[in-house]
Structure prediction request, 305 residues.
Amino acid sequence: MITTVNFQVWASGHQSRFEDVLRNVLPSAEVAPQRLHAAMRYSVLDGGKRVRPLLAFAAGELAGADIARVNIAAAAIELIHAYSLVHDDMPCMDNDVLRRGKPTCHVEYDEATALLVGDSLQSLAFQLLAEHALNDDAAQQLQMLKLLAVASGSRGMAGGQAIDLASVGRQLSLPELESMHIHKTGALIRAAVLLGARCGSDKDCGAALDEVQLERLDHYSKCVGLAFQVVDDVLDSEADTATLGKTAGKDADNDKPTYVTLLGVPAAKKMADDLHRAALEALSGFGESARRLRELADFIVLRKS
Prediction:
């Protein structure tokens, strides 16, 4: 149910509560192997804006989903996201030393531990989806598992990262750049929205969304996913390291193609605005139940870090 509280109160409430969800699903640092578990907790907890979980919670609200179900779906998404950041920061990838305002996992621990942290977070994400009932229809829950697997793998996030690594020093066309980020960044954002929405198939509330509605949400998520990356590229060119919590300007320094290098800052900002409008249009048939998704689209495009 959508309440009258403003977006900042809604978002901060979910962010605070969700930290406890993550603390509970992650292995205790007191359980062997202690160093690995400590590194997993270091890499996931107390950092980030939790945009993907917020998208899952907003989609879950639209679908009338049980919050306990969405907690698990959102945790799975965030564990995949955290694993991707740990691996992306390693010397064999982007070789970064700062993430979320603190040393990256391989710097704080070591490269071998960072590799195992990513592997373990990915496995835990799928364990959560498998051991909790998130949908009354078992076939639908299998589809949810498949959705996250595709979004995470070679046809999604990992594939986008492979394209990114192969594109260093190359001038990509706009369609090529969009394709890369639809996979690298957009796939997991899309999964967050759709997993949250699919938690709404609850026999007690009867709020399961039909395929047309899910397609509208899919279009919304594709637009906000691309907008997220466009804004990231603009911020990377304009903001400083302290504001971003990660090394500013690193993509340009590494000769990676970005929306800013391809289009320039004014055109990149216009593209983000166009994607923002398209995302809001995709929600036009949902009414007040899509309020939080609309506000998240605003947040993604207007954020400063």
Summary: The beta strands are 98-99, 102-103.
